[in-house]
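Sanity check. The docking grid for zinc ion depends on where the pocket ends up, so I'm generating a full predicted complex first rather than guessing from homology. Inputs follow.
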Amino acid sequence: MSRTSITAALKQGKTLVSDGAWGTFLQKKGLKPGECPEEWNLTHPNEVLDIAKGYIAAGADMVETNSFGGTRFKLEHYGLADKTAEINEAAARLSRQAAGEDKWVIASMGPTGKMLMMGDVSEQELYDGFKEQAVALERGGADAACIETMSDLDEATIAIKAAKENTRLEIIATFTFNQTGQGEFRTMMGVSPTDAAQAAIAAGADIIGANCGNGLERMIEIVKELRAAAPSTPILIHANAGLPQNVNGVDVFPETPEQMSSLVKDVVNAGANIIGGCCGTTPEHIKAMKAMV
Ligand SMILES: [Zn+2]
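Predicted complex below; grid placement will be based on this.
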């Protein structure tokens, strides 16, 4: 294998660039509302491959996988729970095909939609579900598990442990924070960046961070808080293209590649080590950010 681990590359002082949005990109390629995005790994592999290739061509050092909703808890809504392993393995294989041997594949693992505190699911069931997904993603060729858009600390730490204890994947854990009326940042479940960082690292995360919810400008404050809580852990940021504006009932993300890339320096100076995009970002945004890095 010609690549080191992501954390080893970061130790040499590099700033790395990740990829951009997947969901909005799939819609552009024809994914219909109500369709299962992850099923496209089996039914539309060329379209999925094309998205990954687009980000690699834009200069990304790592690319995600089309597996955000790939736990059996999400797939069962589409009657696809028995294809969980197959769908996730295909997701990783497609991104690996685009990444080649030189770039990293960071495999997306999103929330299950099940609430532990409401008794929807037991901790063991949640652990087994994340384990099943992580093992299949590794089998398909992933380098890392990117556990993302997390809000509940218990779900996040169970996902981290399930991936860490059952695979050799590097573990990235990112949370989605929103700004409160008091100007502080909290997840939907009320978790602060400080608490998220400490719990994720204690559970075994190699890289921590934030994704979605904010444009790069607000990510600067979040990175500062994460960095203060975790002085020596690499930080990854996947920011939206600005804050969404509702135009005729549709969320529009307003920031251009130029606007977004102009903030890269501040985010890196605040302590971020890997920078990429979330909702509303395109290969053009990634290309501009790469040039700035
Ligand atoms: Zn997003």
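Relevant for the grid: The longest strand covers residues 144-150.
Also worth noting: DSSP finds 13 helices and twelve strands in the chain.
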